Every structure is written in C-alpha cells, then in structure tokens.
Amino acid sequence: MKFPELKEGELLPLAEAFYTIQGEGYHSGKPAYFIRLGGCDVGCSWCDAKETWNPRLYPPTPVSEIVNEALKYPAKAIVITGGEPLTYPLDRLCILLKNEGFEIFLETSGSKSISGRFDWICLSPKKKKPPVNGMHQLASELKVIIETEDDLLWAEQNRLLVRNNCFLYLQPEWSKSKLILPVIIDYVKRNPIWNISLQTHKYMNIP
C-alpha cells in the first residue's frame, strides 16, 4: 500500500499522541509517550482501537511536529503503535527521535515489512494476517492475545519462530478476561516459559 501524500515518511497519519504509563508486556509500568498512527487492515474483532483503522480520517502530520510534542514530556521512551504502524515508512520519524535521545519501542502485528530503527519490538501476531517472513526473528517480545483456549495453540506456533532470548507473554482479551484468565494462569503454571501480560492501564483507568 502506497501513500504518496506522506512523502516517504516525512508525514504520517497521526491518530493521537499522549503521555502515559505503558500498561502491557515487558515494559509495563514504564512512563512513555505514545504515538498512535491511523490505519490497519488486520481487522481483529476485539480491537480496542477500531477508530484508527481508516487512515484517511487522520490528516498527514509532519514527523518534526510529532517529535517536538514528545519533547515536552520528561520521559525519554517512545511507543509507536496503531493501527498497524508498519503500514508506513518509519525511518524518518525514528531518525528524528533518536537524534533527541529517545528509546523507541514498536508495537506491531508484524503483518508488514520492517522500517525504522527500534530499541524494542513487541510482536503481537494475529491469525487473520500473520507476520511476514523474518518478523519473528526481530521480536524482543512476543505478546499473544488469548480470546479462547484455542489461541494457546497459535501462541505456541509463534513461539517456535522467535529467538531463544525473546520474552514470551500471553495476554487475555479484555472483554473475555474473566473467563479466559483462569485458563491462562493454569497454562502458564504448567508452561513456565510463558509470562502473563495484563492491560494494567485499564485497571488504572489511564490511556
């Protein structure tokens, strides 16, 4: 998919940006500035950011403006998320952020080829549109959303593709968490290579 109006990443469809506490996965509890880009064609039924799916709803924003806003906050950690952020060339954004001394964390389904430079890649693979070749080997962290018990098999299939030092997380789908969390707890106790990720920002009632 090409977006010529984005000028090879000089502009990006910014859905929202905000300073908060990372709520999920390895960096849970860490203050970070979130850059959420609009546009995703994966189409998960339980997605909690469906409003970001259509990139045309978000005017192209100069990456220099995005970085200048991030500089207003004290934390030096950036989370680039979506939507699916790898829909777009992220090299220019990452260069500007790195020039300002930011750590950059990417959250991706892996369904698009990599662009940009990151300190940490959280791969959250989706059955509807699995990661492209090579993405599993780039993952610092594998975070699989568990909606039903069958999703545990999907988690194991992806685990076999990541590096040995990749951190492994199972995360209950929020709307089903009361039902599926006991299943995940039992599974992780029996398979301690896995950890549990909870959406702690929802418990804290923050973005």
Index terms:
single chain, 207 residues, alpha/beta, TIM Barrel, 22% helix
Structure report:
This protein has 207 residues and is an alpha/beta fold. The protein has one domain: Aldolase class I (TIM Barrel). The protein has 5 helices and 9 strands, in the order βββαβαβββαβαβα. A 9-stranded mixed beta sheet has the order 3-1-2-4-5-6-7-8-9. β7 (141-146), α3 and β8 form a beta-alpha-beta unit. The longest helix is centred in the C-terminal third of the chain and has 14 residues, at 177-190. The two termini are 29 Å apart.
Oligomer type: single chain
Element order, helices and strands?
Answer: EEEHEHEEEHEHEH
The name of the CATH architecture is Alpha-Beta Barrel
Largest sheet: 9 strands, mixed
How is the largest sheet built, in terms of strand order? 3-1-2-4-5-6-7-8-9
Number of domains: 1
Quick structural gist:
With 207 residues, this protein is of the alpha/beta class. Helices cover 22% and strands 24% of the residues.
